[in-house]
Amino acid sequence: MAAFGTLNGPAKLNAVSSLLDKLAQDLESNKLPQNERDAALEELKIYGRDPRNSDPIFTRRGIETLTKHAFNNPSTTTSRNALRVLCNALLLKPETRQIFVDIVPEAKACSQLKNDNRDDEFLISRLIFLTTYGTNIDLQKLIDQHGLAASVVGNLARHAERSSVPRSNGSQADPMEEMALVETLKLVFNVTQFCKQRVESFSAGIPHIITLLRNISPPSAQKPLDPPFASLINALMNLKFNGKDVEKAFYPDDEPTGVADSLVDLLDRSTKAYGDSELEHTVTPLVCVISMLYEHAPAPVREAMQSKLLPTDEDRQGVLGQGDNLPARLLRNSTNPLTPELRNAILHLLFDMSDKNAEIFVRNVGYGFASGFLFQNNIPVPEMSKPGDDRGAGAEGAGGRAFNPITGQFLDRENLPDLPDMTDAEKEREAERLFVLFERIKQLGVMSVQNPVEQAVQEGRFQELDDDEDDDDEDEKGNSSKTKG
Predict the structure, then answer these.
(1) Which end of the chain is more exposed for a tag (fewer CB within 10 A), N or C?
(2) Is residue 370 part of a domain?
(3) Contact 161, 212 (CB under 8 A)
(4) pTM for the predicted model, two decimal places
């Protein structure tokens, strides 16, 4: 006799059909002993993990039979066994999701989600999460008429409360605790993504998510956004960061920068830990959440965030973006061709931290990093300025110390090449080349500039050479020079 759940091929198909027939008949007769009913569901769950030769599970009759056992049976054990089979079915066969939506008792499902039980939370949250893809499920109805948002917020509150209780030495966390939390957070993201008109129904969950972010021990340094951290961040993505309770959670009176510090530290570790293949989908949501946090933050919190995310005077000892601290890594990723979403998120964050002012933005990150973002977003590019000039993007840092507006490096720290002085003829050719270049730039309208040769004439710094001086140059250097700037 074959071991429990090990059949394959036609034998497996016959076993699955027989099990579903037994469960369907039991719905009418209710004569099957509970231990036999639960054993049948357990065997069906094992067979259903592989859709091959498990076809009866994925039919309307199969889904309907399992749904009735899941929501109409008074036994919690039977209910959860049936829910597990349903979860596997909806995951493996997307076409079963609409069947489930058509027959599921919505009120009972949302009511069961209120139970203070991690198995129920995990299973019901996963089922509703799966039905947000490829079905006509009415999420607004679930929220307005069946209390979906209230049930989800209640589960988040319980997770937050448990995370605040110190664990005794040596005690292990219940694995279902984290699994249920992750499913709840995934559900928050999808519902707020696909039912934006009811996003504010989940705002009450924000303080609980923040509590969890601060109480849960961080994952390993190699994967700082491993579960549940990535899910906690994603759950905040679509929520509204306003309202007194939300602001109190983000900027508590006793430690207003605490949440911001935690998120920035998480960003610091994440940009070190993940390569290009993971940065895009893993770190981008974190940058977006930090941007939203900054947008609503009071001035002291904004200043603290700027001090950690924008280049400092120490960074300007070299070319910006070439160091190994967080601002340098952000700047490098802002031009990373392999992470377009992350690149865009970083530049928006840095632009917001520059008061959404193009001149301050260029001053903060250098024209080299800023120009592409400004062009892409149709923001006028500020006029480049000379060191010591207060116009345009500015080229002076704190204390009036001049820096290169292109690279952001302090001018007195630049290593300039030791080249011989140009001859007058070389200067003339360079002036002519620059004159043509700047005239083309003006005609293209790329940026507002004044031709430096034209400016030199206006300021009296343009000198015509005498004929004698010209002859001397020919005799001595074999070149003729008409101008000297």
Answers:
(1) N
(2) yes
(3) no
(4) 0.81
All residues at 6 or more sequence positions from 132 whose CB lies less than 8 Å from its CB, including other chains: 139, 190, 191, 194
Contacts of 152 (CB under 8 A, 6+ apart): 113, 125, 184, 187, 188, 191, 202, 205
Co-location of 408 and 474 in the same domain: no
Q: Give the residue from 88, 104, 120 where a domain finishes.
A: 104
User: 104, 125, 146: which is the final residue of a domain?
Assistant: 104
Q: Measure the CA–CA gap between 291 and 282, rounded to whole angstroms.
A: 16
What is the domain range of residue 464?
426-485
* 3-state DSSP assignment of residue 446: coil
Domains in the chain, number? 3
Tens digit of pLDDT for each residue in 412-441?
Answer: 667 656 557 778 888 778 878 877 777 776
Name the nearest CA neighbour of 387 among 359, 369, 364, 412.
Answer: 412
- pLDDT tens for each residue of 248-295: 999 999 999 999 999 999 999 999 999 998 999 999 999 999 999 999
Which residues make Cβ contacts (< 8 Å) with residue 136, sequence separation at least 6? 98, 101
Query: In this structure, are 337 and 450 located in the same domain?
Result: no
Is 319 contained in some domain?
yes
